[in-house]
Amino acid sequence: MIDSGTTAWMLLCTALVLLMTPGLAFFYGGMTRAKSVLNMMMMSFVSIIVVTVAWVLYGYSLAFDTAGDGTGFINKIVGGLDYLGLSGVYNAVYENLIVAGGNVTPEAAAADNFPLMVFSAFQLTFAIITVALISGAIADRAKFGAWVLFSLVWATVVYFPVAHWVWGGGWLGQLGIEDFAGGTVVHINAGAAALALALVLGKRSGWRKEPMRPHNLTLVLLGTGLLWFGWFGFNAGSELAPDQTAGLAFMNTQVATAVAAGAWLIVEKLRDGHATTLGAASGAVAGLVAITPACGFVDPWAAVVIGLLAGVGCCYAVGLKYKAGFDDSLDVVGVHLVGGVIGAVALGFVAAYPFLPGQNKGILIEGGQLSQLGLQVLGPVVVGLYSFVLSWVIGKIIDKTMGFRISQEAEVAGVDVTTHAETGYDLGSVHASGVVSPNGPVPATKKVDA
Amino acid sequence: MRLITAVIKPFKLDDVKAALEQFGIKGMTVSEASGYGRQRGHTEVYRGAEYQVDLVPKVRVEVLAEEDDAEDVIDVIVKAAQTGKIGDGKVWSVPVDTVIRVRTGERGPEAL
Fold first, then answer.
1. What is the CATH number of the domain that holds A399?
2. Residue in A211, A273, A282 closest to B47 by CB
3. Helix (H) and strand (E) counts for chain B?
4. Helices and strands in chain A, H and E counts
5. Contact A272 B46 (CB under 8 A)
6. What are the pLDDT digits (tens) for B15-26?
7. Distance CA A92, CA A83 (A)
8. Contact A279 B47 (CB under 8 A)
9. O-UMP-tyrosine occurs at which residues (chain B) (predicted)?
10. Cys-Cys crosslink for A183: which of A133, A258, A314, A340, Cβ 3.0 to 4.6 Å?
11. H or E, element range at A93
12. Out of B44, B47, B53, closest to residue A318 by CB
């Protein structure tokens, strides 16, 4: 039985989450220098293209085909092949889970069923943005073709299995790890990959010597707004039903984000003397990241605490790259890895509404279990290590074969013009000249017919 | 004839322009410039990382004047551009051999 209300809600959430990737493109694009804005945005846009194709062909099947009861060893690690090419999805139904110990009856849960095709589309948008998030670490200097290949391979061997581990019936989910909307699957996963790629590619030419200021903070704020807006679909949508928990996730998303943005600004004002625009934007995203795993599990007071921890913690964490000496250009590690860990581990303390078999309350909540805190540490460690190691290996292989970095000359001239033959901003009228030709370059001299 | 070049604070451009017009100067060239003198630059902070921005936005005004008027024109610019604070800019003049009005081909002071 398909519920039209749930179907409509999930279609809407899917579109909201997809909007986050163009939002991320603006967020990242504004933070680069003007000469790399298009390449930065293109790395996000191309992940929409690559991951969508991989998802249809085999990605959805590898991530979400439980292949029977999910007890076989292989099926704990990776999904089956029943949904290759999305075959068999059209007529299938996503059956909402019967909540263990909750106040939802099997009848009520079944009343929230919606088409499996919608579930597949919804989950696709998560895979897309996870890949796009990684690109912030390698601004200004990556070969576009190498990034396209990396995004395809990484989605295949890292994202699809990890999504299966936690959400697709795999081993971490069976253990009872709590990850409501993707703190571990999306943010820790992407953050660890970002660290690996920053190490594989190395520092940008001139890092710490030349100023590499964000060229357009208005774009960063526009991107932040789109991310914030879309994130309601990401978090509240992850309930997979328009119900009480979706409402909780929605409110917690708003609360943690606002608190984290405020906390970041306060730290900046006290530490550096100025409350900055980039600080507000970064704090908001840090709060969104940290509340992602927790949004459907905690009370709003706990969302305030998580927001505070994320705002303060990530504000300090983005400085680590200067001490450690790696050029994670746009702070994917400091915001997404650190924010994701904060949210995941916080659940071990403040989770109040566990609902799947094996999940428990946090230790600060009455009836909480220490074992849950252990699981909340285990998840980030396992996923972080898996993603870091595989990303490093994939990155190294690409670097040794086709090369992952553009030449230094191309980097200094700007990746936009050298890779894409475009410039983001044509603000003058003197330097740009020439004739538009539909058939390639115009010859320097032309014979004039008599 | 002399070419007088003034590098001034951007917000003083309107005052300088008005003063020069009142003096009788009929044309000028204005361009955006960046640079520093004793003022040096300023500090910007992005995610806690401080950047020393050496070059400060300035406006460059270029005016051609007859030899006899040059000192007066300089005085007019200095008076109009002055705030008394560091970073007010510089004015200098150099001799000019020839000036030609492109439209008519007039040469010398006639072309000013």
1. 1.10.3430.10
2. A282
3. 2, 6
4. 20, 2
5. no
6. 999 999 999 998
7. 11
8. yes
9. 51
10. A340
11. strand A93-94
12. B47
ipTM: 0.74
For residue A156, the one-letter residue type is T
* Binary contact (A276, B51; C-beta < 8 A): no
Which structure tokens are listed for B104?
A: 């008519």
Which tokens hold the place of A198?
A: 């920053």
| Six token digits for residue B79 | 């008076």
First vs last C-alpha separation in chain B: 9
Band of residue A358 on the pLDDT scale cut at 50, 70, 90: confident
A278: distance to nearest CA of chain B, Å? Answer: 7
Beta strands in A227-330 (DSSP E): none
Average pLDDT over residues A391-415: 96
- As a whole number of angstroms, the distance between CA A65 and CA A80 comes to 5
Overall domain count for chain A: 1
Q: How far is A216 from chain B (nearest CA, A)?
A: 12
Interface contact flag, A319 B48, Cβ < 8 Å: yes
CA of B10, closest CA in chain A: separation in Å?
20
Rounded CA-CA distance A401/A72 in Å is 37
Contact across the interface for A315 and B48, Cβ inside 8 Å: yes
The overall pTM is greater than 0.95:
no
Which candidate in A266, A270, A272 is best for mutational testing of the B interface (most B CBs within 10 A)?
A: A272
Domain of A229 in residue numbering reads as: 4-411
Interface of B with A in 47-86 (CB under 8 A): 47-53
The kind and range of the H/E element at A115 are strand A114-115
Alpha carbon distance A371, A277 (integer Å):
41
* Chain A residues inside the 8 Å CB shell of B53: 211
B46 touches chain A (CB under 8 A): yes
Six-digit token pair at A150? Answer: 């990396």
Contact B51 A213 (CB under 8 A): yes
Residue at token pair 């290759």: A84
Q: Which CATH class is domain B2-111?
A: alpha beta
Extended strands (E) in chain B? 2-8, 29-35, 42-46, 49-53, 56-65, 89-95
Query: Which pLDDT score, from 0 to 100, does residue A101 have?
Result: 47
**A18 occurs within a structural domain:** yes
Token pair listed for B24: 């009788």
Are B48 and A282 an interchain contact pair (Cβ–Cβ within 8 Å)?
A: no
Asked if A331 is an interface residue toward chain B (Cβ–Cβ < 8 A), one would say yes
Q: How far apart are CA A68 and CA A85, in angstroms?
A: 19
